[in-house]
């Protein structure tokens, strides 16, 4: 499907913006504190704004909302570069970074697959698996490309290329109207907000801890490889986690799932905990390389099942907003993981940091177990309309 190619093009920059922004501001303003704070504000803006943009997409359609949203986002990115380059006041960096928030193309792509295969669960599973693998490829290629642009061409090149890819990719994606899902128009007064969907609440809670896994893993790995005297290897080690995840996603897409998706969800989270816990046994680079590859093996399958479960419990007319909510929960967890990882490293040393991903995975499983009855209920009775009290 052509919309998958253009969707990949438009979401590749998601893994480029953060590192590009940090390198650009740290280089031009000579302040990692300012660079990190701007990146944090940008992530906070994403958490707040993306679900609202996605709600508009559900109401008015992908093309009608995504095109003006991505134009505004691109203007914000260019303005951020100009402000950083021309030594504008610091507050302008925060304002323009907020303005650069882009729509969630990954959610729109999956919404199209959900509509195309609405009556074919196995084909939808395969499509979700393929999209998750593309997400992993984004997070393997994106940071490498961003660093190469910022260090090889110009400190501003990473942000500018990311903005161009977002604009072109989203524009080409929106132009493919033939696969755009039709609008769902439920009666006014009967729609329940996704925030009140009890099954979705459970998924969001688990995604918060799942994000904590990834955020802590990144910070701890950087600190641990530096402690070993191999700081330049941090990117490669982290990429191995994504490689393991991508391979697992490809293989998982070939599996025919039987039984309840909610049970598969629990098994996926349990698998993540099992794969993450051995990281505490890392002793040197050789063992870390193997353990990081294993740590990624359950990530893609769990995310694939999560998307399938979300598509079962969220009404079609709210699918973009629901996916955006899980994405922002994941981003919030990444921020939490980064902060907790830094605190743990400063207090207990890099070796202790690898307890965090395993602990977060365990907590995600506990939350899912506690919310399992709500998940099953939401699957059997999607909360698309207000229920009588």
TrEMBL record:
SUPFAM superfamilies linked: MFS general substrate transporter
Database matches in InterPro entries: MFS, MFS_dom, MFS_trans_sf
Key words, A-Z: Membrane, Transmembrane, Transmembrane helix
Topological type in the membrane: Multi-pass membrane protein
Domain (Major facilitator superfamily (MFS) profile) ranges: 199-389
Subcellular location as annotated: Cell membrane
Transmembrane segments: 12-28, 34-53, 65-84, 144-168, 202-224, 236-257, 264-282, 288-310, 322-340, 352-372
Major subcellular location class: membrane
Record Pfam families: MFS_1
Protein name, entry field: Major facilitator superfamily (MFS) profile domain-containing protein
Organism listed in the record: Streptomyces fradiae ATCC 10745 = DSM 40063
């Amino acid at each position: 499907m052509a919309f998958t190619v253009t969707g990949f093009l438009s979401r590749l920059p998601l893994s480029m913006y953060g590192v590009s922004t940090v390198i650009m501001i740290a280089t031009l303003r000579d302040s990692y504190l300012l660079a990190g704070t701007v990146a944090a504000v940008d992530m906070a803006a994403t958490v707040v704004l993306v679900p609202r943009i996605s709600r508009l997409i559900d109401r008015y359609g992908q093309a009608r909302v995504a095109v003006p949203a991505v134009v505004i986002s691109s203007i914000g990115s260019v303005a951020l570069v100009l402000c950083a380059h021309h030594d504008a006041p610091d507050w302008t960096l925060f304002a323009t970074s907020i303005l650069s928030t882009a729509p969630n193309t990954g959610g729109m792509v999956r919404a199209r697959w959900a509509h195309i295969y609405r009556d074919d669960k196995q084909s939808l599973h395969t499509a979700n698996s393929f999209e998750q693998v593309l997400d992993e490829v984004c997070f393997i290629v994106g940071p490498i490309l961003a660093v190469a642009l910022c260090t090889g061409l110009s400190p501003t090149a990473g942000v500018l290329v990311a903005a161009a890819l977002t604009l072109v990719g989203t524009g080409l994606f929106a132009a493919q109207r033939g696969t755009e899902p039709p609008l769902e128009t439920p009666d006014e007064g009967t729609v329940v907000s996704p925030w009140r969907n009890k099954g979705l609440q459970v998924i969001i809670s688990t995604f918060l801890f799942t994000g904590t896994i990834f955020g802590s893993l990144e910070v701890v790995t950087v600190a641990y490889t530096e402690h070993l005297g191999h700081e330049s290897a941090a990117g490669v080690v982290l990429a191995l986690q994504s490689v393991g995840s991508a391979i697992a996603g490809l293989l998982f897409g070939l599996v025919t799932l039987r039984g309840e998706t909610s049970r598969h969800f629990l098994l996926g989270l349990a698998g993540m905990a099992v794969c993450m816990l051995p990281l505490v046994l890392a002793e040197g680079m050789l063992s870390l390389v193997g353990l990081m590859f294993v740590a990624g093996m359950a990530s893609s399958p769990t995310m694939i099942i999560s998307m399938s479960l979300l598509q079962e419990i969220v009404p079609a007319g709210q699918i973009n907003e629901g996916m955006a909510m899980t994405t922002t929960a994941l981003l919030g967890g990444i921020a939490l993981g980064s902060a907790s990882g830094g605190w743990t490293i400063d207090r207990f040393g890099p070796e202790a940091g690898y307890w965090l991903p395993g602990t977060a995975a365990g907590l995600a499983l506990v939350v899912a177990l506690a919310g399992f009855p709500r998940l099953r209920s939401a699957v059997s009775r999607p909360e698309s309309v207000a229920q009588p009290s």
